[in-house]
Amino acid sequence: MITLERVSKTYGSGGRAVQALEDIDLTVPKGTIHGVIGLSGAGKSTLIRCVNLLERPSAGRVFVDGQELTALDAAQLRQARHQCGMIFQHFNLLTNRSVYDNVALPLELMRESREAIRERVMPLLELTGLADKARQYPAELSGGQKQRVAIARALASRPKVLLCDEATSALDPQTTTSILSLLQEINQQLGLTILLITHEMEVVKSICHRVGLISDGRLVEEADVGDFFTAP
Ligand code: ADP
Ligand code: ADP
Question: ipTM exceeding 0.85?
Answer without folding.
Answer: no
